[in-house]
Structure formats: C-alpha cells, structure tokens
Task: structure prediction
Amino acid sequence: MRILLVGAGGVGDAIAKIAARRDFFETIVVSDYDLSRAERTIAWIESRGEARGRFVAAQIDASDPDNVASVAKEHGATHVMNAVEPKFVPTIFAGALAAGADYLDMAMSLSEPHPTDPHEKTGVKLGDDQFAQAPDWETAGRLALVGMGVEPGLSDVFARYAADHLFSEIDELGTRDGANLVVRDEAGNEIFAPSFSIWTTIEECLNPPVVWEKDRGWYTTPPFSEPEVFVFPEGIGPVECVNVEHEEVLLMPRWVDAKRVTFKYGLGDEFIGILKTLHQLGLDKTEPLRVRSADGPVMVAPRDVVAAGLPDPATIGPGMTGKTCAGLWVTGTGVDGKPREVYLYHVSDNEWTMAEYEAQCVVWQTALNPVIALELLSNGTWAGTGVLGPEAFDAKPFLELMAQPIDQGGYGQAWGLEER
Result:
C-alpha cells in the first residue's frame, strides 16, 4: 500500500504519526500546499526512529484535481487519504479517481440549503455529489470510503456493530459528541480556541441540521434545535447537546435499518453565542468581499478571516486539558426481545495524546480511525468498490483491532459499551 496523504495540518500530522508505528504500508507521501508542514511532520517521525525510509514529503495543490492526480501518479499511490477541509473534497475525489487510486476522507462534499424552505426541507445534502459519482468508481473498480474519521467514522462503525450484534430492532441511532476541554493561554487565562477547524465547525453548526426518520426521510430543522442534556462517561459528565448538520445522518440510513437517526453536539452556551454572532455579522460567509488594504483592494472571504484570527487547532494542545468523547446512543429492542438502550463510545485524553504524539486529543481521535481502516483495507479484511460509508463493512474486525493491546498487534484503544 502506497498512501498519498493530502494535508499535514492537525489531523494529517496525527495520521502520519499514528501510522508510523504500524507496518501495513510501504510508503506514505505526506503532502501539503506548504511543503514545510509536511517536512515538519516527517522530521518528528524520523526523530523517533519510526520513519524507516517510508515517508516522503511533497507539495500539492488540493484545489486542483489535475495536480492531485499528478502527485498521486508520480509516487505510485494506491490510496489517497484526504485530510484537509471539506471544501477540497470534489477536487481530491476527482484527482484520486483520475490517478486510479482508492480514496478515503473524514468529511464529505458540502451541502447547500434548500433555496426556499431551508429549515424543513433538504437541498443538496452532505455527500450527494460523491454518491452521484458512485457508478464511475464502480466502473473503475475503485473504492471511495467516505466519512471515515471519528464522527463520522467510528460512530458509523458503532452503528453497524449495534445492528449486527446488539439489537434486533433499532428505534434511534443518535450520535452524541461531548467534552470537558479547556484551553488556556500562557498566563493561565481560559480562551476561546476551537479544538477543530473553525471553517468546518461553522459549516456544520450554522447549516440547517438534518434528521432522518423512516416514515419521513431526510428533513431539516433550525440550527441548535432540540437541546438535550446528555451525560458523557469517564468523568466528562452532563453536557447540553443540540442538533448539528453531520454526515452520520446522511450515511447510516443507507446501510443500517433504524426508525430515526440524529446527530447532536455538545457545544455549550458560549460557543453557540459566538457562532450566532458570527452569523449575524456575516462573518460565516464564504463568498469573498472587497476589502481595502495598504496595497489596494483585495478580495477576502469573511470565514477565512475568522479562521486566520483564531489559534491553529494543531497548536493548542499544550494549553488544553480534559477529555473528548465520541459515541453513539442506540435505543430499540435487544437480541433477547427486551427494550435496550446503550451508549457505544471512545474517549481521548489530551494529556495522553500530547505526551505520546504531541497532538491534541480531538485531532488525534479523528486521525486514529482512518489509519485503522487503511490497515484493514491493506490486509483485505475490508474490500469493496464504489462510494461506501463505514457502515458497509463488518464492524467487528475494526473494533477488535482498535482495542487489541499494542503488544498483541492492535492499537491499544479501548472502546466502551454503557448500558443505560
């Protein structure tokens, strides 16, 4: 397996670091628009003696499908791993297919709200553009594994596992994400510093959330709808969660039989207030505006300005404390015919991820899952063609490899099953 990793930001950096401790691949080409970022990631791996000549740095333009294809072909890539913002999905997706490589991502092609009724009806849904191209991937005999991060990704693996092993009938698949993370500056003051790309966070949180019901199909609600307090495990505790647009709701119903599918994110009052203010000021927009500067007028997208003004999520780990939890709440009828309610989850502790990988816990947790998926693809445990989500594959080998101790060939990352 020869992997072209597109993006050496927080998640891409963590993917390379996690993969460096595994032996399932021949080469990983760490690529980025800023070559120095790719080189920095490889230098970190080399300093720990884990590279063993298997890592190469390359410059890439993720916005240009021809360039993506060219870099993939130059290095003989068998798999293209997309680790950049979802606005680049169409070009990397096209470049991978043109290069004759398989493809993985952790976020899918972007949505467009319904033009007249955005808070009730769906317009273009997350991933629609990719699923529309499924016949092309099938004809080429290539696989595009989409939504293979943590959420989406691990949560979707949990959905497959619950359907196959825990439930005879599922009422609701509810992804629930929460944390008790705090970020402080050098003086010890708590600061606002999102732990994931603010560009992506704005996209997810201010777009109309999507809900799926078997009798109704996909429909939308206003942002931050249906608040609920969800109690997260391992000391995180109760967190208020709200509906957010997310890929799980668009993926799970395609392969898993359930009456309802939702995604709720524990944002907190402060974060919700900031997002609402950005929206009111138009700072969430992606269309460039004409702005005066000392060198004359320039065109700048407001959302890019917000992103530039906040700390890079890849750099906030040293000032962060706490844990993040990603999981799936499932209700329905158990295999014994009795009502059942469970929460399947994985917790990532920032103190541990920083000590082991110098990566903050949210990006590390996101990065873990595509590496496991790549390993399963490399040994033939997972296989397929077309555009598929994680639910299309057997969940048991994934969860076994994830939890198996490192000295026994696994990743040493226990996942939990909490009866509720």
Summary: The chain is about 35% helix and 25% strand. The two ends are 41 Å apart (CA to CA). The longest strand covers residues 167-179.
